[in-house]
UniProtKB/TrEMBL annotation:
Belongs to the short-chain dehydrogenases/reductases (SDR) family. This is SDR family oxidoreductase. PANTHER family: DIHYDROANTICAPSIN 7-DEHYDROGENASE. Keywords: Oxidoreductase. It holds the Pfam family adh_short_C2. The keyword Oxidoreductase applies. Residues 8-183 form the Ketoreductase domain.
Length: 242
């Protein structure tokens, strides 16, 4: 039950920044052959170079996960994967009355429909081979009420609900499906000041480093998480415990 992922292919969406980048780097360090997905070629090549410099294996494939055609092209380009990390996400916060219909739809297209059709594309192959691991990146906003988070939080609650359903659908055939629900984490999702404003509401009273989220993702992706499926695991400095 070690975390060795040699010989395994791991696809990480949103690997060009923040949590996804940390996950891609950490999965490669565990031996996985990483497919880093995002829209920015420049940042994609940058993460691939970081992995290669550390002796790992990775390639960048550009795709927009909010676009069903983009997902189809991605699936055709990569073939089978053993680990799928649905990390790409759009985070729009603000007063309910200020959210435009297009932004509401974009939230659900990126955070819910994208992961849904990626699982639809990859989970059946994992099930046929009798093993695989899917990790969805939720959020503490999916389980606690926070002002300005109604639509974003709903996308994460939906992702966590799908995680439970997918566990019942695919785990009998060897595919584990889990969610990791981060709290505030230093990424491009917010300025330092915006993120640090959350700290006093967390028992740990600080913001996370993306690598702290990646640790649990790799645990769940590897054999170390062999009896975990259908769960949503908070890595939120204790916020959802209070
Ligand atoms: N940071 C936090 O405090 C926090 C807390 C809880 C949950 N989360 C969740 O963690 C995940 C990662 O967020 P982050 O904070 O690391 O954000 P980030 O630094 O802004 O990175 C977001 C990533 O998602 C990709 N992405 C966004 N829309 C995409 C699309 N339509 N198609 C393909 N890729 C797309 C971006 O890549 P490109 O720009 O290259 O497309 C980028 O790599 C998200 O699901 C977010 O909701 C973050």
């Amino acid at each position: 039950m070690n975390e060795d992922l040699s010989g395994r292919t791991a696809l990480v969406t949103g690997a060009t920044s923040g949590i996804g980048r940390a996950v891609a780097v950490r999965l490669a360090a565990a031996g996985a052959d990483v497919i880093a997905v995002g829209r920015s070629h420049e940042r994609g090549e940058d993460v691939v170079a970081e992995i290669a410099d550390a002796g790992g294996s990775a390639r960048f494939v550009a795709a927009d996960v909010s676009d069903p055609d983009g997902i189809r092209a991605l699936v055709e380009a990569v073939g089978a994967v053993d680990v799928l990390v649905n990390n790409a996400g759009l985070a729009l916060w603000g007063p309910t009355e200020a959210l435009a219909v297009e932004d509401f739809d974009a939230l659900f297209a990126t955070n819910v429909r994208g992961p849904y059709f990626l699982v639809a594309a990859f989970a059946p192959g994992m099930a046929e081979r009798g093993e695989g691991s899917i990790v969805n990146i939720g959020s503490m906003a999916g389980s606690v009420g926070l002002p300005g988070s109604a639509a974003y939080g709903a996308t994460k609650a939906a992702l966590e609900s799908m995680t439970r359903a997918w566990a019942t659908e695919y785990s009998p055939r060897g595919v584990r499906v889990n969610s990791v629900a981060p709290g505030p984490t230093y990424t491009a999702a917010g300025t330092r000041e915006e993120l640090e404003a959350w700290a006093p509401s967390l028992p740990l009273n600080r913001v996370a480093d993306p690598r702290e989220i990646a640790e649990l993702v790799v645990f769940l992706a590897s054999a170390r998480g062999s009896f975990a499926t259908g769960g949503t695991f908070p890595v939120d400095g204790g916020r959802t415990a209070v």
